[in-house]
Amino acid sequence: MIAKTKKVKIQNTAEAWEDGELGMDIKYARAVDKKIGTQIDEALGLQMISIRLEKDLIDSFKLLGTKYDMGYQPLMREALKRFVEGEFKLIASEALEKQMAVKPKVNAVRRIRKVA
Known about the structure:
2 domains, mainly alpha, 4 helices
């Protein structure tokens, strides 16, 4: 006699995807068509680049990726975004400080002109 196996249907829900019930098995993974990949990159505003990094740095990002439950490449993207945003804030702050330093001198000149 042949034993029948009971099939369990997994519901196609966002929770099933997030929990890994769906989409985690390698047998369902396949490379996306190049045209579709290009469309996805364009929709997300992504551009592929090539960069050489120290193996230790990559390993560190991989380790951090497991801690934050994300891939190391998206984590690198996030780190680069944060760095750039921080630098822009620093540049803006320095420009504001320079502007504030010039303002008192301009106001002093205006006061002198009024008196004269």
